[in-house]
Amino acid sequence: MGIDRRTFIQLVTGGVVGSLFTPVIWKSLDDAAIWSQNWSWIPRLKYGQITEQATISKFGPSPCSLMVKSVAGSPYVAKGNADNEMSKGGVDAISAGGAQLLYSPSRVKGPMKKVADGKYESISWDDAEKMLSKKLSAVKGQAGKLAIVSGDATGTSTEVLSAFAAGMGSNDCYLMPGDEQAAAVALENMGGSGQIGYDLENSDFVLLIGADAMNSWGSVVRNQRVYADNRPTGGDIESVYVYAGPFLNSTAAISDKWIPVAPGTGAIFSLGLAYHMLNAGASASVADFADFKTLVMSRFTPDKVEKAIGVAPGVMAGLAKQLMSASAPLVISGSEFGQGAGAVDIIAASALNMLLGRVGEKGGMKLLAELPLAVDSAVSRAELSSRDFAGYLAAVATDKVKAPEVMMAYEANPVYAMPQATTMAAAIAKVPFLVSFSTWMDETASTADLIMPNPHSFERFDDAQTPYGVGTAMLSACAPVIEPLYNGKSTVDVILGVASGLGIDLGYESVEAVLQAKAEKAGADWDSLVEGAAYVSDSTESGSLKFAASVLSKAVIMPKGGEIALAPYAKLNVGSSTMAIPPLNCVTVSKFELQGKDLFVQINGKTAKKLNASEGSKVKLAGAGGECVARVHINEGVMNDVIAAPLGFGHTAWDEFSRGKGDNISKILTVGTEPGTGMAVWTSSFVSVA
Amino acid sequence: MEEKRASKQCGGVFPFFIGVLASLVIGWWVFPQVIYSQKTQPIDFSHKVHVEGEGMDCESCHTFMEDGSFAGLPSNEQCAECHEDLLGESKAEETYVNEYLNKDVEVPWLVYQYQPDNVYFSHMAHKGFECTDCHPDVGNSDTLPTYYENRISGYSKQTMKMWQCERCHAEVGTSNACYVCHK
Q1: What's the CA gap between A222 and A90, in Å, rounded?
Q2: Residue contact A14–B106, C-beta within 8 A
Q3: Would you call A376 helix, strand, or coil by DSSP?
Q4: Cβ contact (<8 Å) for B27 and A11?
Q5: How far is the C-alpha of A260 from the C-alpha of A641, rounded, in Å?
Q6: I need a surface site. Which of A281, A313, A361, B125 has the fewest CB within 10 A?
Q7: A315-351: per-residue pLDDT in tens?
Q8: ipTM of the complex
């Protein structure tokens, strides 16, 4: 029997019929369907051992202690570290994306030098360090030739930088502006030492004047945790919150009462309250009490205060009474956006704490002892905090001070984040050699002559000492969670190496050794710190404070009225002075703050009518140093004659997620000088609207 | 003519059955062998030595984290708690210590039951079951089973299919809603 056509067809037909009773077709179809889900471009999960390691992130306005979960050694999520007192298990909105930020397109992948046309060329670390050493060697021993600015107010790294500056013969080592500057200057004028702290968790009545504790003032994440602990959902409310500020921000929204007070008038508000307290018999055994009382009773009477800031005498009297009848009241003053407030605001708020007998008390205002310096030649934290970088740059801008030959920016982005940003950026542009020690290609790195990338928080040793605002001195530290993904190098290691080459002995050979020494000198256990515990010290400064009545007398100026005040605000999800909008946070930006590339500012209906603006209309805001374009959102939670404007937008560097979106409100902040202290201030910024 | 037609009719039925038979043989015997490639584990690991010899149980190495997440396979760090140096004379241990532990390279174990990435599987939620209800009973075995990799889908032969998950959920009264497994 041969195989003819008929046989073949029947054989095949049999084969096909038979195959229907086998798994061939069904299994193949099923597997093909699964295969279609596994094309090479589909992201794959990484498998392996899941581990947890403690670390610190400094992406937000204050350090955050985290636990980083990794799979097979790769971090994938960051969560709060409940065992650490510094942030009490909270995590801020930028640090939460810390694992993803490891792969940010904005990361600087290795040292680079500027070449022609503003372009950058990758160089080796050896070459970068030689280049830096050569420039520094030329200015060594000459005052005014080297300036350093650090964006890390809590790290021992900054101590190393200040010691290096001292070794170079420079007094120009600064911190980026922050509330701690006003507090340090205030404390100096009140005759105190150490660092002002606030025992928020043990207070039963918290009055926040200006200070946006839930977004930008103090140790924000910790503040949020303390608030949650003292006011548990469904539980007993153990602490009453009152907020006095220019608009219904996050802090006002969670407070029991919001009292509208214009930006920059916190001191008048405080002294208005002092009037009622003094009237009710409050006093303090302080040398200049009589002067203070005379000042308050003559210049801050209820009618004068109402005329100046619009708060009715009855409201002030009622609040003063509440404060005086609380068991553990606490008054905190600060800028509405974490920077630019005058010392006088802190002095006036401290005066209230003194009248209430709350200085050095549980739940009150504390004078925290500074932890011992790790580097002997470093500048003390109090002194460094009180130095005025904005004032220095303003003087460089106006040629009152000669621009330094070399400027080094560590974890700082002054080209973008300084007040009156355009003026300050122009001052920085006068510096012949700018070095950026940044993890990110930010605005400062983008204009620097040399970029020496510091590793990401998860890739390095670091520590954080007593963030401004907390009620006890403390120290946290961390070791790398992951090997550096790119060619970064710890800035401290760079500085120690360069210093050694220049004949400056800072006493250590590595960043790890410096941080360990810091822990040891503080009395902390390094291993415990690295495992995520915080060292907490009850040590406080002794001695009493004075009212600094003479400073108050000069520095408190009644507003003229009739102007449009700018009330900038900072939100954690948008970024900080050192970070732009992280990619993952773009979807969290409110449509009332940014739509497409348009920035929105907020005003109430009455102010809108006055300015002839309506919902969505475009306005041009002009300050002393620049202009911003924004659209208007009508919000009745904003005071009359106030424009609430979000910081953190309008980046010109970084990546597609933040570059060119909105405008930078820092441009229209106006830097002034506080009478009595001489420090640069910019909370009272007025704008013209067109 | 008549005879020839009859003969052809008989021959027409026979090839059909030959085709059916050939299909069945290929479909049930050849196809399963062709569709899977066979792979062996990088090291000849004996669970028995660890379970019977050292009194360890599954969770000694395949641990849960404090938060309930499953750590999966042990890392070199965990293995080094005992195997920092050679403990015995087995070739497998020597290979492990010299080729992986000392070189700080994690062992690329082949995992029999990795689920696709679009499946969320919580070991903690299934902690009430015996490990062997779902996994091969390797605890008392001196050798590791051959790993069969599906040439089309790329998954292991032992990877649990969705119908198996659904059937078990139905049997124990757990929801079979999509979002239970697909987050």
Answers
A1: 7
A2: no
A3: coil
A4: no
A5: 12
A6: A281
A7: 999 999 999 999 999 999 999 999 999 999 999 999 9
A8: 0.85
